[in-house]
Amino acid sequence: MKIRKICCIGAGYVGGPTMAVIAQKCPEIKVTVVDFNQARIDAWNDENLDNLPVYEPGLDQVVAEARGRNLFFSTAVDKAIHEAEMIFISVNTPTKTYGEGKGQAADLKWIELCARQIAAASDTDKIVVEKSTLPVRTAEAVTDILDNAGNGVKFQILSNPEFLAEGTAIEDLHKADRVLIGGDLNTQGGREAIEALVGVYSHWIPRDRILTTNVWSSELSKLTANAYLAQRVSSINALSELCEVTEADIDEVSRAIGADSRIGGKFLKASVGFGGSCFQKDILNLVYISRSYGLTEVADYWEQVIKMNDHQKGRFAKKIIKSLYNTVSGKKIAFLGWAFKKDTNDTRESAAIYVADHLLCEKANVHVFDPKVKAPQIQSDINYLQSRNQEENESLLSIDTDPYGACRDSHAVAILTEWDEFKTYDWQKIYDSMLKPAQVFDGRNILDHDALRTIGFRVYAIGKA
Ligand code: NAD
Ligand code: UGA
């Protein structure tokens, strides 16, 4: 079966870029991305490509090429579902904040809502693709809802998790290491559905990189791929603390470990802690699932990855406080970076939020500069934690539009995100404008520490004595 019309529910960080690339690579397929968030859809349709709701290098060109040709963004969810042959569900699946599984399980209410909307708006057979990251066996529930719609429509359910990383989304989509498609390999209908989706991706992905599995393997592989990646970060971060007390250097240790081809050099960069919308949520979900099957040791093993990450964020904040003579009350501390990594405007679960919160609890005056994150987002990230009331947050936390202004008259500058531009700043000028002793806390190990020390800075770097 050749697909001509695709609908994607959810125009977020995954739905937007993923569908833009499918539309770019498959000009004969009409791709409609729908969302019930009107403001988000308006931003996707904005004439000015700088106003797209997601910042990703290269995304603007892809959207410019396909939008209006075969790529459309709309709030008309039912209409798009009705006319599509293949429907991707790419909605958010955050950690539950209430009830059973609170703080660990994935909240699947938007997934269920999508399934019910699809069931209600369909009168022809459809292939439904889980693009969101989901607990293993979610397809069972989705199938149950769709099969009981009572409309005589036949649905095939596929799992096609997304592996793109933010900041490199377009590159990752263009040159994916692999595309994973889980489906019902035991039935003719299931195999045809898998082949239909393979047909979409094979427009640009080599066939040997498209892996097909059963649905459960596909669902579980996504959760566990993230757990594996995050585990590498927590492992190197655990070693960074050991380096600081033994005079080993974490970058040297990392290079030596990564040179082993069985281990590989990627994802071994020590940091102030991993952030992002998914690592923590997906591991917590893995922990919850393991516990719900009674697998205590498995759950405890993966939970440690999160505990280590919390420890890393906490000890960075404590290091700043200790170095500023155990009190930061009323002291100006500049934060360079708020996004959870460079080249994205996404701040979800960013380490910066937690480090700032720790310092604000000690009544520090934190001044933030980030090249892509806007002020209301930063205030809302801090307010969301509910550690203080909004007025107090507004009086303690300032957002600067100029990095030199953020650093002026500060006691310390902390690097929270590895934005390339931070390396090119005039650090002599920053030093001259700061209170002395001027301190730099490099939470990403991106600056030239010897050069900073020559200027006169006191420098703390992760994993270095
Ligand atoms: P997001 O919050 O940016 O986007 C989700 C969108 O879905 C929102 O705009 C929301 O309004 C919309 N939505 C929710 N329910 C809807 C409904 N019933 N009808 C219409 N619109 C609806 O989330 P995201 O970052 O794109 O993540 C989506 C999924 O992809 C999650 O499961 C996530 O774990 C997974 N994922 C994310 C990334 C990433 O880099 N962000 C990478 C791989 C996988
Ligand atoms: C991650 C995965 O890399 C993607 O494959 C996956 O699709 C995605 O999660 C998801 O499911 O959401 P993402 O969170 O966008 O992608 O970005 P990463 O590059 O993985 O970085 C995550 C965090 O780890 C960032 O805070 C980053 O700074 C940190 N990190 C990463 C380190 O501290 N050290 C490293 O060596 C690598």
Automatic annotation (TrEMBL):
NAD(+) binds at residues 10-15, 35, 40, 91-95, 132-133, 166, 278-281, 348. It catalyses: UDP-alpha-D-glucose + 2 NAD(+) + H2O = UDP-alpha-D-glucuronate + 2 NADH + 3 H(+). One of its GO terms (biological process) is UDP-glucuronate biosynthetic process. The active site is at C278. Coiled coil: none annotated. It is an enzyme of class 1 (oxidoreductase). Residues 334-449 form the UDP-glucose/GDP-mannose dehydrogenase C-terminal domain. Substrate binds at residues 162-166, 222-226, 262, 269-275, 340-341, 444. Pathway: Nucleotide-sugar biosynthesis; UDP-alpha-D-glucuronate biosynthesis; UDP-alpha-D-glucuronate from UDP-alpha-D-glucose: step 1/1. It comes from the Bacteria. SUPFAM superfamilies: 6-phosphogluconate dehydrogenase C-terminal domain-like, NAD(P)-binding Rossmann-fold domains, UDP-glucose/GDP-mannose dehydrogenase C-terminal domain. Keywords: NAD, Oxidoreductase. One of its GO terms (molecular function) is NAD binding. SMART domains: UDPG_MGDP_dh_C. Its EC number is 1.1.1.22. It holds the Pfam family UDPG_MGDP_dh_C. InterPro entries: 6-PGluconate_DH-like_C_sf, NAD(P)-bd_dom_sf, UDP-Glc/GDP-Man, UDP-Glc/GDP-Man_DH_C, UDP-Glc/GDP-Man_DH_C_sf, UDP-Glc/GDP-Man_DH_dimer, UDP-Glc/GDP-Man_DH_N, UDPglc_DH_euk. Catalyzes the conversion of UDP-glucose into UDP-glucuronate, one of the precursors of teichuronic acid. Belongs to the UDP-glucose/GDP-mannose dehydrogenase family. This is UDP-glucose 6-dehydrogenase. It comes from Algoriphagus halophilus.
